[in-house]
Amino acid sequence: MDIGLSITNSSGFQVSEFILMGFPGIHEWQHWLSLPLALLYLLALGANLFIIITIQHKPMLHVPMYHLLGILAVVDIGLATTIMPKILAIFWFDAKPISLPECFAQIYAIHCFMCMESGIFLCMAVDRYMAICYPLQYPSIVTEAFVIKATLSMVLRNGLLTIPVPVLAAQRHYCSRNEIDHCLCSNLGVTSLACDDITINRLYQLALVWVVVGSDMGLVFASYSLIIRSVLRLNSAKATSKALNTCSSHLILILFFYTAIVVVSVTHLAGRRAPFIPVLLNVLHIVIPPAINPMVYALRTQELRVGFQKLFGLGEHVSRK
Q1: Class level of CATH domain 23-310
Q2: pLDDT digits (tens, 9 = 90+) for 211-228
Q3: DSSP-derived 3-state class of residue 5
Q4: Residue 222's CB: how many other CB atoms inside 10 A?
Q5: Which of these, 17, 48, 81, 82, could form a disulfide with 73 (CB 3.0-4.6 Å)?
Q6: pLDDT in tens, 248-273
């Protein structure tokens, strides 16, 4: 497309903008997907805002576990908002062009928020490990100061380590195609359009996944392995049930998050015959966790349910009955 190309002094053409084509293979009817995606986005925004407001207004929830849950809600809102407004604009207003700076900024935001979510899951796993395996030392170790330090360390780690991803992508020379068969600017989807070598981009992407997400995943499952081993040693069945119920909601979401990463990676590698599937899974992997995370916690965490009831006056209504 001529509108996305500009003549440079050196070699032929230089892409000045990318065109997000949407879901490959279903361009004619992809707008019908906008309704369920919009509902998921609204659910993610509403549910996570309820979590944040409830935790902020209820003193009984001002403990490290719920502070981390509030931080996760903020990250979920940021992650979903990184992609959904642009996707809906593509479907509803045919706003397919995206400038190079906007595209590279979206690449950075996606990677940063995804790594941040992984890091918060690790902090939550450590919190549950200390609470169950070292209950006496837990109040003195896992404090509000601990939560602040852990969160800042994750922000610094993810913010700095993900900077080279868009920087390396911006250094590539885009001289021919500018149409991306995707709804968002994925790093490999964008750099695959480059006219020069992208080996360094692929290597850094792989290293980032292994170093950040891989290490987080290993530490998370190590923590829960130690938790399960400690719980199974308890003599009381009631204590065992209570301990497992305490961390079950965390474990459900963690298993879903990391399993989805593996599934998306595998389908991306095997998606040449049906390119629509990995693109759809990639989008759903970003928007579904923010939508279901608060619901899982609200359904399985008694303190949060009580907080919801008190915040909206449901507890008083039920008690009067």
Answers
A1: mainly alpha
A2: 999 999 999 999 999 998
A3: strand
A4: 12
A5: 48
A6: 888 888 888 998 888 887 777 665 66
